[in-house]
Amino acid sequence: MxxxxxxxNKLPADIWTGTGVFxxxxxxxxxxxxxxxxxxxxxxxxxxxxxxxxxxRYAEVxxxxxxxxEGAESIISCAIPYHTPLAGCAISSYALGDDxxxxxxxxxxxxxxxxxxxxxxETRVCVDTAPIRERxxxxxAGLGFIGINNQLIIPGAGSYFFLGEILTTVRxxxxxxxxxxxxxxxxxxCVRACxxxxxxxxxxIDTSRCLSYLTIEHKGDLPEGTDLHGCLYGCDTCxxxxxxxxxxxxxxxxxxxxxxxxxxxxxxxxxxxTQEQFSTMMRHSAIKRTKLTGLQRNAQSILKQQS
Length: 307
Ligand code: SF4
Ligand code: SF4
Prior knowledge:
This protein is an alpha+beta fold.
């Protein structure tokens, strides 16, 4: 019988002060379970990832976060809200303010520093920049469940959240997963509302049809006959119709306040932007990911559909 005293460390509540983190959960690190690995491999084998070749790479790291930080013991999954009530905008609400990669990283680096100050050890912060299965770990930590729209849904708070992770070599007390019965049930609103029928019956997304993918990640010309349904950058439809998003948290970080010029941008205006205007308007914005050429490709496609 193991008589060693419990070595779990617990995060104090004040570690989150001023960071914008709405909810967090902790998982102990072990390789990703076989079913989840198999699902991912099948999704890649069916070419559901479109032209996102990077999703094929670093499979061994994606399946084993120990390879991201030597000696890692725990993952802290964090959710930071971003929703603002702007209807009819052609740009996805997550991209209306400052780039979450920068904002969330800065906030989580503050938490990581506090973790090191309290418990010692090493940390690594990931915000969509490392091959880590962020929703898998968020579910394991009891942060929420995966909806049919493939988004992490936090019960009572919805899916308008950025996720970020802090890996630490310190053993933290894991939080409990949600009960199995917490899921989408038979709602199906997102499946019916998706303009391109990208949400498959098995709950996976055919990314190559998804407007978020096509407007942001797809490289080169859009496939023949593409209808972007007015989306200049990203798509919020499956999140907007989800009943779990009826009452999203309203207390967002000031950096995520929508920029008026970005929120009001139309397809016609986007086609007229010069490089200098684009660079100024999209400074510290996630939208610079498409570059001006990508945004204008989308704008021209929308205008062609409307003509
Ligand atoms: S983001 Fe838009 S296109 Fe993609 S699955 Fe959701 S509703 Fe469909
Ligand atoms: S709209 Fe319905 S089916 Fe889709 S994610 Fe939300 S609860 Fe699940």
